[in-house]
Amino acid sequence: MTRVLYSLCGKDETRPFSPHCWKVSLALAHKGLDYVERPYPFTAIPTIEDGFSKTVPILRDGDRLVRDSFDIALYLEETYPDHPTLFGGEGGKALSRFVESFSQMILHMPVTKMAIMHIHDMLDEGDQAYFRQSRLERLGKSIEEVAAEGEAERAAFAARLEPVRRTLHFQPYLGGERPLFADYILFGALQWMRVTAGTPPLAEDDSVMQWFERCLDLYDGLGRRVTAA
């Protein structure tokens, strides 16, 4: 059986960049499950599996199709209970929901502002037109206007991660002594920036940056298979 993860790329399919797809890549590796990754550009996503989902990630596992990164993680936990746990129980699921909210509400927009022009430049012409229009509709501004706010976000980015920094004072991962899906959620946001716009603006001795480096090294350096922009 070939397990397939459908993910997002630009012109270069060797550089998948979606934060949500990176969560699933690490979740699959955590579970020790083999898979093939098939990255698609934005405008080709509606063609995947006969239009199963408007967004990626999508996981095909035998006859099963699952969309949404959190739903995929829950599916993997339920379907492969004898493999290493992604949550460590109900508390870990609750932690992951919190981290997902923190990541999307506190980090995703700053990363968008810092990375948006870089992402545009990674796309082919058709996807560039789609990206411009869809971001104008979603954000109410042109991508150039959004990118103009990027330098201010860069200066403030480290401070946004202070709750994570304080947590890592007590433990090496958000999940405790070992990473859990909560770690992969936050990793996905920083990896999104790393692949599209370069290394996150954090000092080398920042505990969050040291945590990120540990996550990049997980599973034989899975996160490092794509170099920083």
Automatic annotation (TrEMBL):
<dbReference type="Pfam" id="PF22041">
    <property type="entry name" value="GST_C_7"/>
</dbReference>
<dbReference type="InterPro" id="IPR036249">
    <property type="entry name" value="Thioredoxin-like_sf"/>
</dbReference>
<protein>
    <submittedName>
        <fullName>Glutathione S-transferase</fullName>
    </submittedName>
</protein>
<dbReference type="Pfam" id="PF13417">
    <property type="entry name" value="GST_N_3"/>
</dbReference>
<dbReference type="InterPro" id="IPR036282">
    <property type="entry name" value="Glutathione-S-Trfase_C_sf"/>
</dbReference>
<feature type="domain" description="GST N-terminal">
    <location>
        <begin position="8"/>
        <end position="84"/>
    </location>
</feature>
<dbReference type="InterPro" id="IPR054416">
    <property type="entry name" value="GST_UstS-like_C"/>
</dbReference>
<dbReference type="InterPro" id="IPR004045">
    <property type="entry name" value="Glutathione_S-Trfase_N"/>
</dbReference>
